[in-house]
Specification:
homotrimer; alpha+beta; 9-stranded mixed sheet; 6-stranded mixed sheet
Chain lengths: ~280, ~280, ~280
């Protein structure tokens, strides 16, 4: 009754047009039909390991302890890249060794990290084109049945995994905080790499509503508490649901409004800096 | 064995590109891992409360009693709009107070209606940008575990909720029944606001196959029983699966065929009215 | 605990924009709330029975025995076409009699084949426009509860079902194996009708890596073991996850690269044939 049902989440760039996600679920259910399967998204841009890493980092903690998170963004499928299994904060993660797990590994608290090599838990014969079906799915299913992670393969060092070279926000010579647009969601909200903690440290006492945010040559006054803080059609900066500084337009699309793109700079200034006369 | 598994349905305008729907499911499963989660659709046009209201009304009764229906189309998130929880016909509904529940409330049989305010059942801290995750999901999960609805907040009156101003079909001076296209589905079928009952009352004895349906200047003879009643590529009027008059083209797309759009008038005439010479 | 949870898979051309798939799930859960529901895909091209048949054939065996596979690609809904229920290899299949099941039926091992006519297991009143909701979903749900298939309707002969006229690969006068592109997946991979067995028989001793594959006037040397066998941006032929010859471009889109389309010829030659001077 109150027994915890094991949860497996799936994050891929397979899309939902083909049968590939369904087949992975079939393989999982053939091993453990009593799991909860949750799609995080399958609409990642093809081979976009960076978005995969950002999404894993910002989602996993909303799931129950012991959840198993499967990430298949795998441009190197069938080649020499390793398959990783990581345990951290009571969650399990399975992904190719291409950086998809690097952000959560860098965040610390890793309890165990292994290269998955034990073919006893694979679907055979293992194809060279669809490890999601032949390796990731069955390994996740076996873990959901309580398989000890040590059975999957040898431990590897935290420094032996592929890492991503993500831009960090930095202080400009004129003492502005300079970040970048890391993701744009389907609402057109511009999600930056400026996290709440960095923003607070930068402000050191200045209140959020006094900061000035520059998107190109456009100026937004203050970090607001909700999209709704401005009238419909107006731009607004908020600390979004990922706890990152986010530029939105209330009830509209900030990507279109600002003609913004991934990687574009977003700058935060403090009012004491005299941010200039109005344009 | 034959125990009823609780069902939670999700209807949002989040799309499936981002991780937002997956995160809501994580929050639900963290509270109750033993639920059935069903996606109604997440492809609502952004902020289209009218479509949300129409879909809730036409879908909920196909689910088992005690199902919990979560609707997150929420342009006012983080602002002053209330969150509603409604019990009706043995089903539960949770949605922002923006009209999404107004059609089912107007249909009567509401057993209980409350403003959701008890933060004990929220995910904390509550963000101002993602109440789907912080309020709707955890409240639904607690209800699925049997929480008494009275714990969520104060009762409010049926007349205190935001309503929608939807067009109703009407009789023209020349005694035609004039409706509108309310929705267009992905098949391109044009779904009107003319329900079966209104059509029957209008016909008063005339058989459906004798009515004449006008889409712009095009004429369709009779309300047929299936798309297949006409040959492929021909237009056809049917009482569709929502029990609303629907204009389709057999094995093709009526939106394209008629260059039709939302809100366009659809007129039904009776043969005794002498609907004129053929054009 | 280790009890097998019944699995129902859904394969339709409904898309995910509308509420139709969700409603089918509601009907199923109203009859049996304890099932695992798996979406194979709902993004089939409208009325594309051939893709449906190919996907059913290549996916079903990845699911647990006793899984119930529901296919709703149904241009003839409400017309005279039959509804089939088939048992084969311990799996159940429910689909309109339009060819969707013809490939698995032709593959043999059919244990039982019936026309579904017993309205006792339908949702009433049965509409003429949405048999997915009114017939397919409830019949699948009843099967998942252990209903004996013989209750659904009369047995019919294997030769009484609608079949598809799919092209088979053939030998050209100059002894090349000529196949066709049957499907193109969302990665842009070109999936042919040349299966592994036919390719091996054709090669009779020649190794896969010595074959030459022609896509239009472009030549690919050898059938490789993985996409990764060539450098990014280069074309590659592999035996894909469906065990069919597949033309891909490593980390890119073969459809765009080759300007390829469905039905286009793909030719395989053996090196002993002297496939001509390099272009």
């Amino acid at each position: 009754m109150n027994k915890q049902v094991p949860v497996i989440t799936l994050l891929t760039d397979f899309g939902l047009q083909d049968e590939y996600v369904g087949v992975m679920k079939g393989v999982i259910l053939s091993i453990n039909s009593g799991v909860q399967l949750v799609d995080i998204t399958h609409a990642l841009t093809r081979h976009d390991v960076v978005q995969a890493a950002l999404i894993v980092k910002s989602t996993f903690s909303y799931f129950p302890t012991n959840a198993i998170h499967v990430i298949v963004v795998d441009p190197g499928v069938g080649g020499k890249r390793k398959v990783l299994c990581c345990q951290k904060d009571g969650h399990f993660f399975i992904a190719p060794d291409n950086g998809a797990l690097s952000l959560i590994i860098q965040d610390g608290n890793v309890d165990e990290l292994r290269a998955v090599t034990n073919e006893a838990y694979f679907l055979k014969p293992v194809s060279h084109t669809f490890h999601g079906r032949d390796i990731f799915a069955p390994v996740a299913a076996h873990l959901s049945k309580g398989l000890d992670m040590s059975r999957l393969g040898q431990e590897i060092g935290l420094s032996d995994v592929v890492t991503l070279d993500l831009p960090a926000p930095f202080l400009s010579p004129r003492n502005a905080l300079v970040g970048k647009i890391l993701s744009i969601d389907a609402f057109g909200n511009l999600i930056t790499n400026i996290d709440q903690e960095t923003l607070m440290r930068f402000g050191s006492g200045q209140r959020l509503e006094e900061m000035v945010i520059m998107v190109g040559r456009s100026k937004i006054r203050g970090v607001s508490t909700s999209y709704d803080s401005v009238k419909a059609g107006s731009p607004v900066a908020v600390l979004g649901s990922r706890k990152l500084l986010e530029i939105a337009v209330n009830q509209a699309d900030a990507r279109t409004y600002f003609k913004a793109g991934l990687g574009q700079a977003i700058t935060v200034k403090l009012p004491t800096l005299k941010d200039g006369a109005p344009r």
